[in-house]
Amino acid sequence: MAESFTPPAPSVRPAVLDDGPALAELDRSTWSTLHAVTPRPQPPYEPFFDDRHRPEDILVAEAVNTAGETAIAGYVRIVPPTPLACNAHVRQIQGLAVAGWARGRGMGRTLIRAACGAGRGQGANRITLRVLSHNAPARALYEAEGFTVEGVLPGEFFLGGRYVDDVMMGRTLSP
């Protein structure tokens, strides 16, 4: 009987500037109307990092890909939702992507847990996110990780010929 290979668990690290091209490619390859409210990216492509999307706001998951190489498997962006001091105790997930080859391996869950840990490490006691109502897989994952629906903006976006609700979710970050 042949032994089955179990790839090592993914590792999560802060992004570095050199990750920009790989993260931009990941963003383009995972673009979908299931989660994107912006049009499909077209050349010439904008850089992944800019004044609003900084490496220090991104956590990168690395894992062994189908070629047996360690590669970027996904990322999560976690930032303060506003610049206000009265809101400094909150972090918000503003982007999460998982490479096609890494799906079904717990990568999204790993990234969400890393984002919660990073938020706690930054002194936050709460984390929030927004997700499109028709993105059932993401909503199920967030709920499994303790997020609850805290509000719904009905018909907030017009995507693919129909109105889609914007669902706000959040959870407490326990110490």
Q: Work out the helix count.
A: 3
Strand order of the main beta sheet, please?
A: 1-2-3-4-5-7-6
Mean pLDDT: 94
Which regions have little confidence, pLDDT < 50, spanning 5+ residues? none
Shape: globular
Strand-residue proportion: 25-35%
Task: Please describe the biggest sheet, giving its number of strands, its sense, and whether it closes into a barrel.
Answer: 7 strands, mixed
Q: What would you call the structural class?
A: alpha+beta
What can you tell me about this protein's structure?
With 175 residues, the chain is α+β, with helices and mostly antiparallel strands. 20% of the residues lie in helices and 34% in strands. The protein has 3 helices and 7 strands. The chain has a 7-stranded mixed β-sheet with strand order 1-2-3-4-5-7-6. Strand 4, helix 2 and strand 5 form a beta-alpha-beta unit. The protein is globular. The mean pLDDT is 94.
